[in-house]
Amino acid sequence: MYCIKKLSLLTILLCIFIALTNPNADTVRKNSPSVLWFPPPSHFARNLSSRLMSWPQRHDGDLSGVDLERRDPADSLEYDYYRELCPQAEKIIRETVRRIYSVHSRVAPALLRLVFHDCFIEGCDASVLLDSTEEMDAEKDTPPNETLKGFDVIDVIKAEIEEVCPGVVSCADILVLAARDGLLMAGGPFYPLSTGRRDSTQSYADLATYQLPSPYGDLSDTLASLGSRGFNEREIVNLLGAHSIGAIHCKSFQSRLYNFSGTNEPDPSLDVGFLNLMRFKCNESLLASPSPSPPPSSSSESSFGFSSLTSEEPGIVMNYEGPSSGFGTLYYRRLLQGQGVLYADQQLMVGEDTGSWVRAYASDVSLFRGDFAETMLKLSNLQVLTAPNGQVRRSCSKVA
Ligand code: HEM
Ligand SMILES: *[C@@H]1O[C@H](CO)[C@@H](O)[C@H](O)[C@H]1NC(C)=O
Ligand SMILES: *[C@@H]1O[C@H](CO)[C@@H](O)[C@H](O)[C@H]1NC(C)=O
Ligand SMILES: *[C@@H]1O[C@H](CO)[C@@H](O)[C@H](O)[C@H]1NC(C)=O
Ligand SMILES: CC(=O)N[C@H]1CO[C@H](CO)[C@@H](O)[C@@H]1O
User: Mind listing the pLDDT tens digit for each residue in 149-172?
Assistant: First the structure.
């Protein structure tokens, strides 16, 4: 522990030194908005600033080169990085996701959310995939991760790739590529991902606990949280369009339904009809009547933990009008009607700028899709680790 503290102190000092001596410091600042040693802009600073300022530097690998590499890390990625090292890699990923998607379309939202939780915490380095060990609490064992899924999908893909090119393709690349392919199958836009990410040797449970945005965050919380990773208002409204697919459990919005913020009233921003639907879906006494539980599955791949919402874990399916209604616009049209599932979703309507982006996306699906491809690309390139830093894990849940 002492050693780690000492190491991060050293790293910070080193960073300051480099920042002071590096003539390109301005470019760096512009390209890596979540670089830690500069204070966030004051209008984002409200609640998060203290946490951000104490954000520890990462301590993967050795110190030499680490911080130089991390100045504009996404620039070290390369399109089709595996073309010689493992030419089949991207095809294996796509085919495996397709195979699973044909049985469990929920693989798409699961992987999309997994990318968000990975990239948001110390960059897209597969840190979210690590299991806890005696020495390290893992991100996946923190409250915001309670309903994360898709770990086993990544394991299946990784195993298939390891068979043809062992030790070459990183878990971090597999995750962003698989999520991209799943999104495409779910009707989302395509974006060309560069590769060459490396995997972390750490998982950051504390950061995951405190830094992931809260579903009960108000607009300023959400803007501060995602803003701290370099996303502007337009991009934030756009990114939340990811909530067009997948499912949200009642516990993520329960307190909007009856006693919102201790008022003994439901959240007034909720459309009444939608409120009743949510109450109905989440009412334990109504659900107590036995709903048929899914039949036990025989093959391991047919389970994947993607069984739909259950009576123990009820919730709302986000694309309940079906994927044919198009990835994106339904989410924004619902916000216009007071039908955002999360408080944080609905809050996008209270800001002048965020509200006009909601209206823009609600009425123009191609605008939304074009922007979404860009913001997903940006998300997938956040603070990546590239050689010589990090490592390529053999098993995505364990440090190699
Ligand atoms: C303010 C920002 C965000 C908050 C507060 C938030 C919160 C949540 C919560 C609470 C859930 C439901 C968990 C559950 O009840 O099981 C959820 C689901 C989901 N989130 Fe977010 N999220 C945010 C941003 C994002 C972003 C940026 C993405 C991706 C780009 C994303 C993708 C998803 C997806 C796809 C699901 C559905 C997962 C599934 O069905 O398995 N979210 N989010
Ligand atoms: C700051 O966070 C606290 C809880 O952590 C919350 O009660 C408060 O409303 C937040 N303040 C602002 C300005 O968002
Ligand atoms: C509503 O919430 C407030 C504050 O959390 C609490 O004091 C009050 O007892 C709650 N009311 C009911 C009816 O549960
Ligand atoms: C469930 O629904 C019944 C009847 O509408 C209502 O009286 C009760 O308060 C609800 N309970 C919960 C926990 O939502
Ligand atoms: C998928 C997963 O690993 N979920 C974990 C999230 O964190 C909780 C603790 O808060 C664990 O109980 C879950 O197993």
Answer: 999 999 999 999 999 999 999 999
